[in-house]
Amino acid sequence: MKFRAFVTLNGMLGVPAAIAIGLWLLAVPLVWTDTHFTIVGDPLPFWLAISEDTARSLLTTIATAAITTLSMVYSIMLVVFTLAAGNIAPRLLQRFSRDRVNQVTSGLLGGTFLYSLSVLRATGPDLRPELSIAMAFLLAALSVLQVIHFVHSVSRSVTIDAEVVKISEQLERQINALVAETDAQHVDFDEDRLQTSLKAAQSGYVTTLDETALLSLAQHNDTYIAVRVAPGDFVLSGQTLAVVGFGGDDEKSACAVRDAINLQPYRGAVDDIRFSVRILLEIALRALSPGVNDSFTAVTCADRIAAALVKPVSDGLRGDVRSDENGVARLKVPGLSLDDLLNMTLHPLRQAAQGNILMLDHLGVVLNSLYEVAGPDARKLLSSHGKALLQTAGLAQPIRSDLEFLQRRLDFKVED
Question: What is the DSSP letter of 326?
Fold first, then answer.
């Protein structure tokens, strides 16, 4: 859990460092091979035959170019971060730091630099490590190709539509995973056996919740655990994290529960649905603000949010009780209901779009599309959102034809 948080929340440190160290350590077996085994054949192939001076010059050039390009890559990333924070949304910076292209580029260049230095240190009159030098040349070629890919990726990172698509695809995967875990049947959860409240040792956001570990712990102790916080919630020090069925003197089990509920100083976990929703809403609300006045960006965000809601609207969402393999209820976790998801996504867009007939009309299109694929329960919720949409439009006192057009746009029955 801690390693996962280290990789996802501090991606520009963990992943690039791992790649760089891995390539650095690659020099050890290759130099050892060059030392103990000589290449048979005279003359050597042109890509292996090399003099001592040429070898040292080549390795010096590769190392210098790698560290210089690495500095350029970080400079470009800082510029992109600044543009994204000012023009799109400040919280996108956490997404960019987790971008695999940025991580691999930094790690490959850093590893090429360290590898070349190590091979250069071993090169001398008594040893010309031809195989190691060939690998350095290969790493240099890969670095050039990776930098080209990096520039292409960065050029798309400052495009709002492209970022909205990436965020919405991640949100769709998160929500679909939530739908896939829906319990097949309702299971009663006995909370009468819960005795002890476990408090948070520090304040922070709940970034990940290891349900597998909690379920296993509850089964091992033949007890029940009711988690009181959900991913994305901000927890104060001393606030209740979970209520458990074992006694407070079982410190080992209590620590295991706290470890399964990971707290971080800021949001940004991969599994945090609320965080992904808020990024899309932040982009949309910024676009609808008078200072930006970019309704079409908000329209794009509404479309992508609707795409992420298709599965829960049509199939429903899971319950909040988890059972072990024997069907015994062991764990209760707060989940996102369909009503929560719709309120979280549609209400802010509708409220910010008051007076913007273009956006209100498109929200009507979104509600129609969702209503078409929705199940019976979801249709009732969507109908109430349609009613709220008409009321919001009426508050701005539009001309009659605009309001009538919006009413016709909602071609399903709006609840009174």
Answer: T
